[in-house]
Each structure stands twice: as C-alpha cells, then as structure tokens.
Amino acid sequence: MLNKLTNLTKLNKNSTEEVQLDLSRVPNHVAVIMDGNGRWAKKRGLPRIAGHREGMKVVRKVVKRANQIGVKALTMYAFSTENWKRPKPEVEFIMKLPEQFLLTYLPELIEENVQVRIMGEKEGIPSYTLKAVHEAVERTKMNNGLILNFALNYGSRYEITQAVKRLSSDIEQGKFTSEEVDEQKLGSYMMSNEIGDPELLIRTSGELRLSNFMLWQLAYTELWFTDIYWPDFKETDLDQAIYDYQNRGRRFGGV
Ligand code: IPE
Ligand code: IPE
Ligand code: MG
Predict the structure, then answer these.
(1) What's the CA-to-centroid distance between 212 and ligand 3, angstroms?
(2) Domain 23-155+195-246 has CATH 2.40.40.20
(3) Tens digit of pLDDT for each residue in 27-51?
(4) How many CB atoms lie within 10 A of CB 149?
(5) Most buried residue, 16, 98, 193, 226, by CB count within 10 Å?
(6) Is 35 a catalytic residue?
(7) How far is 187 from 97, CA to CA, in rounded Å?
(8) Residue ranges per structural domain of the chain
C-alpha cells in the first residue's frame, strides 16, 4: 500500500528509474486513447484481435493503479464512431470485449469501489454489449471510488452535434433563450459533463492526434504521447505520465 500521508511517494520500486509522485497533486480525471493493439499483435505474428484481448488486461492494471494513487476518474476510449470502418469480424470481437471484461473483473471492480459509466452513441452497439455495460453501471452506481468511464461508439463531433441539437430543442421549448447560452451551458450537454474535463490525456502507440476524442473537454488538457503499444503499457508508464504532468507549468492563457 502507498503511504498517502506523505506527499512524495516513491513508486516504481522495481524499475531502474524511480519516479516520485506528489500524491497531493494527482490529476482528477485522466483520459486515455488506448491505441496500438493491432500493431502489437502484428509485431508478434498474431491476428489483430489478439492485441485487443491483451489490451483488455491492461485496462484492469491501469484502473487498479489509478485508483491506488488517487485518480478520481478514468475515461478510456474503447471504440470510436469511426471504428465501424474496420472488418466486421474485428468489430464483432471488440464489441464482445466489454462483456468479457466485466464478466471477469466486475466483482473486483465492485470490491475496489469503482463506478462504471459509459459514454457514446447507444445506437449500433450490439444488445449483449449494452446489457453487460448497463448491468455493470447499475451494480456499481452506489460506489463512490474511481469512475471508470468507457467511451464506446464515441465520437466528439457526434457528441457536440447531439449537444447542440438538445440545446436548440430546449430553446425552442422556451426553457431558456439563445442569449443565455454560454460555454458552461453548452458544456452541460456534453456526455462527460458530470466528470469534468480531463487534466491529462494519454495516447499510446506513437500517433500524434486526437482521433475525434473529447475535442470540447481537452481544450486545456495536458497531452502525453508515448510510442508504447497499449498492450505493453504498464502501471509504471501511468506513473511516468502523471509525473511528467506534475512537472509541467499549466498557464491557461495566463503568465
Ligand atoms: C486500438 O488499437 C483499439 C481500438 C481502436 C479499438 P488499434 O486496433 O487501433 O491498433 P493499431 O492502431 O491498428 O495498431
Ligand atoms: C482511436 O484509435 C480510437 C480508439 C483508441 C478507440 P484509432 O486507431 O481508431 O485512430 P486512428 O484511426 O489511428 O486515428
Ligand atoms: Mg489504432
């Protein structure tokens, strides 16, 4: 167990480089673009789905570590609105993963006080996938530990479009006027509004782009990229990302 009474705690006891995390300044919300499953598998001469299976285990490890060091919410990009372009068998495999993940790890998540959430377009997601996730959301909604928010069939432009549609409809119904619309109001229609904006975004696999992920919420987020493929991502890599985050100067436009 980590000693939460001291601010500076040495982590990565087994790694050559020790990283000192300031546990009083851990980001509340970390968002992760879990990328590189296919390339991880290809490098090993395995089918792409083997990478997705391996990637699932990493989600568990990262959730555990994040919870341990005091992160309040983790948003994990699991499937984008653009990922339907992939071969059907791969999409089907990915859509079976939430069910598998929860079947294996839900008891553990409950024990660890994790709250499971989902954000994304429900339409198109197979019913067995939704059923598994909704059950997990139901069974963990009384928990008050780490929020594990899965972005499933999520696309930021879709999210913003939906937000604008619902906001306009509320204006039409006379709930408020267009004059009253400000950033906070529009933001309140976004799917992750309750959780707040991420302070830190991690993207694995070396790609330097956002791929339609949380464009509204990432306005002032610290971006952290690594070449590591998602299935190779370790707890110590999360520590490293948070350590780097803690050593950046966030100015929010100021000086
Ligand atoms: C990320 O890994 C997982 C999903 C997008 C579902 P990829 O499947 O994109 O892996 P690469 O980028 O092809 O290596
Ligand atoms: C982003 O990865 C989506 C997820 C990780 C779920 P992609 O692999 O789909 O992104 P691109 O196609 O490289 O931009
Ligand atoms: Mg990819």
Answers:
(1) 12
(2) no
(3) 999 999 999 999 999 999 999 999 9
(4) 23
(5) 98
(6) yes
(7) 30
(8) 23-155+195-246
